[in-house]
Structure formats: C-alpha cells, structure tokens
Amino acid sequence: MKRRKAAILGATGLVGQRLVSMLADHPFLEISQLIGDESAGKSYGDSVDWKLPSPIPNGLASLEVVRLQHSNLDADLVFSALPAHVAVLAEVKLAKNGFAVVSDASAHRMDVNVPLVVPEVNPDHVRIIEAQKKAENYEGFIAANPNCSTSILSLALKPLEDAFGLSSVSVVTMQGLSGAGLPGVPSITVQDNVIPFIFKEEEKIESESRKILGREKDGRIVSARLEVSASCNRVPVSHGHLESVTLETKKPVDPENALQVLDEFKGLPQDLRLPTAPERPVITRRERDRPQPALDREAGSVPGMSIVVGRLRRGPSDHHLKFSVLGHNLIRGAAGQTILTAELLCSQGYVGA
Amino acid sequence: MKRRKAAILGATGLVGQRLVSMLADHPFLEISQLIGDESAGKSYGDSVDWKLPSPIPNGLASLEVVRLQHSNLDADLVFSALPAHVAVLAEVKLAKNGFAVVSDASAHRMDVNVPLVVPEVNPDHVRIIEAQKKAENYEGFIAANPNCSTSILSLALKPLEDAFGLSSVSVVTMQGLSGAGLPGVPSITVQDNVIPFIFKEEEKIESESRKILGREKDGRIVSARLEVSASCNRVPVSHGHLESVTLETKKPVDPENALQVLDEFKGLPQDLRLPTAPERPVITRRERDRPQPALDREAGSVPGMSIVVGRLRRGPSDHHLKFSVLGHNLIRGAAGQTILTAELLCSQGYVGA
Amino acid sequence: MKRRKAAILGATGLVGQRLVSMLADHPFLEISQLIGDESAGKSYGDSVDWKLPSPIPNGLASLEVVRLQHSNLDADLVFSALPAHVAVLAEVKLAKNGFAVVSDASAHRMDVNVPLVVPEVNPDHVRIIEAQKKAENYEGFIAANPNCSTSILSLALKPLEDAFGLSSVSVVTMQGLSGAGLPGVPSITVQDNVIPFIFKEEEKIESESRKILGREKDGRIVSARLEVSASCNRVPVSHGHLESVTLETKKPVDPENALQVLDEFKGLPQDLRLPTAPERPVITRRERDRPQPALDREAGSVPGMSIVVGRLRRGPSDHHLKFSVLGHNLIRGAAGQTILTAELLCSQGYVGA
Amino acid sequence: MKRRKAAILGATGLVGQRLVSMLADHPFLEISQLIGDESAGKSYGDSVDWKLPSPIPNGLASLEVVRLQHSNLDADLVFSALPAHVAVLAEVKLAKNGFAVVSDASAHRMDVNVPLVVPEVNPDHVRIIEAQKKAENYEGFIAANPNCSTSILSLALKPLEDAFGLSSVSVVTMQGLSGAGLPGVPSITVQDNVIPFIFKEEEKIESESRKILGREKDGRIVSARLEVSASCNRVPVSHGHLESVTLETKKPVDPENALQVLDEFKGLPQDLRLPTAPERPVITRRERDRPQPALDREAGSVPGMSIVVGRLRRGPSDHHLKFSVLGHNLIRGAAGQTILTAELLCSQGYVGA
Hints:
By secondary structure, chain A is of the alpha/beta class. Chain A is 28% helix and 22% strand.
C-alpha cells in the first residue's frame, strides 16, 4: 500500500497517545505532524503527560507540536482526537479544505451523511462519503469512530443480528477510568466507589448503535429499528469496558449456536488483511468467570483490537440471550479502531488516491 | 420489650462481626454466647480477624467461644451466620431442640415453610412459622434472611409492585468485596479488575425475590409470578452492592410518581418502631450521579439499614422504569436485617413468649 | 465559652468541607459566612461537590457564598483553606484589618513570627502573636496549621523528644488521595499504582517539623536542630496518611518505654478540655499489622483527631526506634486541628476577647 | 547451548505460572515435567488458576501434573517454587539424588554453603557449589534465589557499593499484591488500605542483602558488614515492589555520579548474553515522579528483568543518598531471576555438563 502522511489533532490526550503509539511502526501510515494549539512550539515530549508503559516512540518526543492551520497541513489524512466542542468546527474546515478526517470526537457522529464506522460491522457505510462531499461541498470528508462502549457492543451485536435478528438490547456498562480521558475522574471520587453515571454516554450508546446497525439509503444512513436501553457506570479499573448485555431475538436462539456464530465472525478488514485487523474480532470464552478487564483487555492477535464475549447463556425465554462483553476502550473503543477505519478508507481508495 | 438472650453461630465471619457489633448495645437482645467449633475454648478476641474500624465491643473480646451443643444453649434466640453446608443440619437440630433460629445462611431460604423475611416487605410471611413447627415437628423454628443483593432489591421492588404491578425485573449487580466473606476473593484476582460472576448469586436473586414477593397459602409461601433476570459482578469496592435495575410494569408508570411512592414507603417495622428499623427504608436521590457506594452505603437513621435509589428514569416505554439501587450488603443485606427480623419476631410473640 | 462567629475561606474544597462539617454543631464557634470569589452569589449547596457521606449540615446548603471583602467580614475568626498562592496576600490583608486568621494554607507557615501550631505539641508558640502584631502592624493576626503529614508526625515525635531526645528523623510517607484536594490526582494516574513524589511535600515536612519542635526566642520561633529526612509517596487510599518512621535518639531507648511515653502523652488541649481535643492524642497498637488507614483513620474519642502508632520496635541500635504512624489527613492533618488551634486561641484570649 | 530438561515444582502458584510462561519459548531450557502432589493426575490446565493475560503456552495446558518422586525425575534441572516448609526437605532429597535445584523458596537461602544468587551482583558465589556437594554429600546441588524485595534492592546497591562503599541502608517497601502469592491477601483486607506488615519480610531483606553482598571464604559465604534496616508495607497494587531507600556511603557521593554509575552497570549475564539478561539491569529515570509500578514494572529489553531507579537525590549529608527503586516482584524478584540463575549455572558448566 502507498504510504500516507497522517497528522494527529489532540495528540496529547489518552486517545492521542494511543494513536501516536500505534502509528509509530505502521506499514503505510506515517505521522507527519502533531497538532495542538496549547502546546504549539513545544516538543511533543514536553507537552504530553505520557501514560503508556512503553516510551514515546522513536523521534516523536522531540517533534515540535504545531498550531492547527486548516488549509496548510502536511498530511493526506487527519486523525482527530479533539474534544467535541472544538471538533465541531475544526473538522468541518479541514474537510472543506480537502483533508480526509477520521475522527474519534463525538461532534459529527450522528450527522446523517457521516459514516459511523466499525470496520467489521458496517464497512459499506463509507460509500456515503461521496454524497457527503456533494451535500456539504467538501473537498475532503469526515468519517467518524463511534463511542467506545458502542464500538465494543456493536461488534458483539452484528453477528447475532445477522443470525437471529434483534428486537431489543439492554446493556449495563462498567467502564474503566481511561475512558474519561485526562484529567478525567478525580481519584478521590472513584476510590473504593462506583459512579452510576457517565455524562451523555447512555444516549450515545442508544443512538449510535442503531446507526451502526442501520443501512444506507440515498446517501444517508437510516438507523436500525431496534430498542436499545443503556445504563452506564464508572468502575475503579484502569482500562477496559465490561458490558452486561441482555438481548431479545426475533428467532429462537440457542447459546451454543450463538457462540459458534460469534466465533466464526469475520469482516472485510479480515478479508483485506488490514494491518490493525485482529485475526478474530470476537473471541469467546467458556469459563464461568470471563471476560475480565485485567485478563482480557489486551486479547487478540492485535492486542486490544478483539472483543471478548463470555458467560453467554439463555435469558428468560428462548428468545433471550445474556452475556458479558469486554473491550479495550482506548484501542478497539478509540485509537485502534480509528486507525482500522483509516486503513479501510485507504484500501477503498478514499484517501490520497 | 422483655430482654432476650441471643447466641451467635459463626461469630468470627464478616456477618458475625456485624451481628456482634450491632447487638452490643441492643435495647432488648443480649449476646449470651458466641459459638464456633474451630475457635471453641479461645477468647473471641483471639479467634476473630476483626475488620471493623470500631473496636470489639465492651467485654466481648474476652468472652470464650463455646462449642455448639444443639440442645444446651443459653439462649432464647440463635442468630446463624454459618456457611450453608454447615447450616443445613445445624439449624434443623436447633429448631428441633426448641430454639428460634434466625438465619443468614442460604441453607433453608427456599424451603416452602420457612419464611424468607424482609421485614418491611413481607412481615406477614412469619405466620407460616406455626405450620412449619407442625410439619417439621419443631419445638423452635427457622426464619431466614435473604441473600444480600436480593434483600436490597426487594425493598425497592415492593412499593413499585404495590403501586404499578411488576411483570419483569432485570438486574445487573456490582457487588462489594465484603459480600464474599472471609477470606473471600483474593486481592490479586480483583485488583484493577471486575469479575463478571458470583457463584449461585444469580439463581438466588431470581428465586428468592419471587418468594419474598409471594404470598402465603396453606402455611406455605407461593412465589410470585414475576420474571426476574439477574447478572452479577464483583467490583473492587469494600462494602455496598450497587444494582442497575430495569422493570416492566403492568400499569403505565411515571418517574415522578415512582419516586413519590418510594419516598413514602414504610412498613410494619416503622409502625412498630423496632430499634433497628430506619425511619425511611428507602431514600431517594435526585442528583444525576447517585447512589454511590462510598457516599451512600451508610445512609439512613440506622446507618446501613436504608437503601438508596437514584437515577430513576423512564425505560424504553411508559411501562418501563430504570434506576440504580444501593444497599450495605453486611447491614441491610445481612446482619442488620437479620436483627430486624428477630425484633419483628419478638414483637409478634414468636420468641421466648 | 463565649460564642464566636467564624467565616470560612475556601469552603468548597475538601478541607473546607470538613471545616463546615465539623463546625456545624460546634459549642462556641458558629459559621457566619462562607466566602469564595468563584462561587459568590450561588448557594453553598450549588457550589460544592460535597464528598462526605453525611449530608451538608442543617441550613448551610442554602447559605449564599459571598465574595471576600477584606475589611467587612461578619466574623470574629477566619478559617482559611485557600490555595497557597491566593492565601499569601489575602491572609495578610485580613490580619491587617483586624481578623484572627487561622490558616491551613502553606503561605505563611514558615514566617518566623507566625506560630505553626500543633496544639498538643507547641501551644506556647501562640505567644508570639503579640510580637507578630507589632512587627507586621496587624490589628488581627495569622496562626498557621502545619502540613498534614507534618502534623501527624510531630504528634508522635513530641513525647519521644521529651523523653529521649531526638537527633535524627527519617520518614517515608504513604499518603491518601484526599490529601491532594480537589480535583487532585487524576484517577487514571494512580489506579493500580503508587506515585513516589508529592510536590514540595518533603521540603514541608523537613522544615515545618523542625519549626514545630523549635522554641520561641524574642517573639520569633527558632527551629529545632534536628535532622529530618522525608520521602513522600501517594498511594491509592481515600483518606489517611501512613508514615514509616526511623528515629535516632540521644538517650538509649527501649520500645516498651517508648510505648508507655506515647500512651501517657497529653497536652494543653486535653487539660483545657477543648471540644475538639481527643482524650488521647496518641493511641498505640500492639498488634503486628497496625495501624492501617481503613481501620484506624477515624480512631479516637473525636474521630480522626488521634494519631495511631504501631509496629514500634528497635532499630539498628539501642539509639534507634522504628514505628508506623497514621493520621487522618483531613481531620488531624487539616480541618480538625485547625479548629483545635482556634479553640486554643479562644481559650487563651486571642480571639474576640 | 545444549538443551536441558527442566522440571517445575509448584507450577500452579503465581511464581510457578511465570516460570511456565517464561520457559515456554526458552532457547535451551525445556519444560519436561510439571510436578505437584495435590494436582497429580490432572492436567495442568485443570489444576491452575491461571492469572496471566496471555494464555497457557502451547501444549502445556494438557500436560499431566505428576507426583514428586525425588529420585526419578526426567530433568537436568529442577525449578522449585514450593512453599518454604515443603521445600526444606524436598530440595535436599533432590540434591542428594543428583538434581540441580534452583529454588525460589526461602528454605535454604541462608544456609552458608548455598549460593544466594543475583546473577549480575554475585555470580562468583556459585563457586561454593563444589564445597556444598562435598559438605552435604550431594550428587546435585541447591542454588537459591533471594526474596523478591531483596533481589530488587541488591541490584541497586551493588554498583553503589562498588563505587562509594556502603555503611548503612534503610529501606521502606511498598509491595504489590502478587508478592503474597495465591490466595494471598484477602481483598477486603487491603481494599482502600495499606498494611504496614509482611510476615518475616523485614528479616529476609536485612539478612539476605548482607549475604548477597558478602564474599566467599573457604566454600562458605560470609555476609557483608553492613547495617540494613527494613520496614515493609503491602499496598493495593497488582504487581511491582517500590522501595524508598536511604543509603549512607563511605566516600562522599554526588547524585549525578551515582546515576552514571547505575546507568553503566553491567554484570556477567550481560557479558555472556544470557537469554533472560536484560541489556541494562538498572534503568535510571530523571523525571521527578518515577519509578511507578503501573508504568515501570515491565521496563527493559526483557520485560520485568530491569529495575528502575528514580528520584535519586542527596540525603541529609554528602555521605547520604536517597532514591526510589522499583522491580517486578514476579519477574526480577522471582521467576525471571531464577531462570537467569539457571542460565548462568548452565553456562558455567554446573548443569548437565
């Protein structure tokens, strides 16, 4: 694959740090610029409160962070890990100026002509980019990465939707601390505690998962008709979002059958052998007490890119299924999947073609 | 009220320690014996790995722990905090020998002629004690305290069942570490982790809550027809079980209405002014991020005896209600409620009358 | 004692909240004003992220927070829980304008004519207030409360200094999260972690403890000649600072003897029966694994006002002593001791006399 | 290097699991047997409560655990991760029967003719094996791995001893939970807590570090004359022991100088390029808040085999040095270093030559 230059907006946050870390040795994406208004003029090493065990990758610590200039970036592709209120305008300007924006911000996720991509689930949604460019008069475009909990959930729902049809989804999340970014939750607030609330998270899960499972019509995404009900909790765990799910299915469902369907699930990224695609997007565990954040958050051939499903069992009827699903919020839920989407877009000719 | 002598079986465990602590200054229950085969002959202070911040109450540290003799206790009342497999036979023998056994063990909870008591919810169930004595040929009797998560849940369900009728309950628990007793979960297992499994807990919640909400018929309890579906998780929190609940109601339900119903709920223990009865069994919070274990587990006029309900909101339809409920697993969920049941039984003439 | 009006500066922080909570039922100090520029005009309840399990005390939630006016306070006494950089000037202006300022801020702790008070240790230091007023041309005065770790440490050192003489002190702290205030340490930073650094804490312990153990000379405090060496760590514990101490003594020291000296220690606040004075400022434990933050941080007749010393044992020679000491950083280390100092000042005629 | 067969005693514990994991792809050590009396007859997968994120390595899950037969092992080398009281006799019998025993148990660490090896620090101590064989009439021999905290500490002390001479060492440890093995500390005991006591740990650190820094004389190890004083704490951290150290040196010491000495330190394992030897046994950090368990416990070219030293600074005089040191207790502190010692012994012709 042809090499592309990638700029990162918001490179000092937790998602930005993961983008930097995962792109450092990428076979065809190359970090060309780290962009941040507050840190502009300083080196990346001096700007970032680096939170990964591995050091800042080769050379990047001394790279100077530059101010955002919407028309004058040295990049084929822009990764945005900006806060939503900043992203709203910045991403539009970049798209107008011809840049391919792949965004982890929530700003444009629910725009009807912005694809909200989980590459194994709805790779066909990227087709609406053409309509987006026309409708918005963009030279470039915006593609969005879903909310972390939603990305993880959708990947478990898709194979089951295909096999059994879903009529309702009820999910209770137990989300790790890194999902709140930096500075995130004060430690005294969550020490020896669980917080049964995450700002706007339930709304995001409910609306975004319907969009991801929706279909394209006339250049727009029509959300799936599916009842989704979410309750979100913050738990004192560093990384990993654990979700307790109850589904109602249209066809009767047998747990063994469901496990097999999940085990066998593959998507376009696996077919295309994209570099950040894990061999198995969904790993199932049959032990009685898995998945667990501490043991399973880095599962898979690309660590953190597989979700892990366990405790799959019958619910109240043969049209109900219960299970727990876990994913790494910063990898499958954010940086890793955003990169996978960029890889998909490159492979489909949307970037720098 | 006439003073009664109370013996405690299993006084060294976490529930036992709470029984000792709460009974130390009780107005009419007096600890007469601490019973334990393994510790027999040693002082209580030398036997127990005392985990409460307050010291072992006056005089009890030097009390000698005695061996269980089923016929020869110096007690009007026996509190059992034994492990289930030991409780099965021990409690039967004690009941045969004329003792009033109020048990926190799971051994006899689902026996059809044993009342499973949440004193504010089903105080009338104690009437089956007469039938139990006849059927089992007991001089004494057994009354059981429900599982901790179930006790907390039932107290939230009862007022809503009365007001709106319940057709299904879905609950996901996040349970504190002390619920597993001593030694309980190894610290390395749960550090920076959540365990999505607690042995037999889901089955207990599902069956016990139906029994508690059931009704007496011919000296037996007939469980309520109610679909209950539970998923249980262990979280790294010392004390407090937080439960995320979705209900389906028979009548349409409005959140404001539901909050009012919960706020106004009182039961027989409040009418009787039993010493361990909190003024308000259910406390509601309207902040967006409550209840929280660290802040709310000792809520109420009798610390830890009130449950706290918050985040009450509409679910997917006007027949659905969602909320979070928290209770102290060792107090409302175990020792405190067991004592409250004993107080109820004393007031109703079942003990030492 | 005559009632005094007390204003609180910085009432929304963690120390401020404890001041509010502890002063709510005080026998002779009465909260007259809550002062904060950022929250001015809002009610206290709307301004504060209240972190105590007990609710905001009676009436104070609706009290309006007012802007600081240095000359026009309705108060006999001002408690300052301001950040140091704000306190520098604000406290001086208040002192100039006639107010008695008892401050938990670090701003003026090391000023030679400001007493740095641990009421059981150096109550005589308050005598320099007269000299301070003259030297600084103050109508009122400033008295300072030491750093949290230092307050706890000094209380353990004083009886041993008196009995055996100290030549050097080496202390390694393990400090709870609430010591960093709000927002304090981000949770992701300290989850499953220990941070071996606290900004300026070691310098504070080293200089302040020498001042506290110093003596008055010509209206100034001359620090004690004592080698103090500190190493500070932040641990994932909500409240409580645990300190591992090694002392070198001038006289030979025997552990049993040292324990007795600590056990018997009392100070002027105990003699005066000040309301916030614990019966025993130092509690000793002889178990092999105490003190522990979770079990001992609220020890004593005034919860959190006693320190707990344990594991007292010989060091490398008979002139060395090793022990662990624990105190509640927000109570003995901050709000509680500040109130105790205010009580001392009232009783000695320095406030509103 | 010639391939050797290695048997593992105590393979189901936390250290045993690390041995299994690290030996799975070893270039010349090959796991031949997993030995355990309790699990004998079951597969390793069914016996172990596997706690590593990575799965049980290829094939080993189905390997049958066998009973210990002291004379009839299929092994050139035996790794012992037994509890001390079992190891005492078992290791002697194995040595008598001709096996090379490399033990992580404490049983024989302080025997004068057993080398207590930190391979970078005292590789010459293995020479006493010849004397041991004669004195004890062993066909094989016993070599011991030090206590985890001691291994980490010694590696920091050695370069400083060589450069400046040490007269005293004072260390306060903050040790991770996995150091206590399985089941280890109950979670309720250590939740929101620090335990200022670890059974016999202080004695081990004090005696073992002197032995490691000692010298061989007549086939025995004579401990160094060095005052070592330790205070040990258990903190709620999964893995990693953090130690706060104060040294007194014989020559004056300058922090920059000391850092350089640590940076440049290499030992025989590095010269021999042993497979488990990290490129740099000691990594220094100059940030003000490192080392931290969460970020630094897997530092180095062989993850977990390097220790990390930071916050190095002057102590009370120019003959004092203070720093924090961190190491992975299960890798450098146990399994990894035990393997490195085995590699050293193989390279020196002590095993299967």
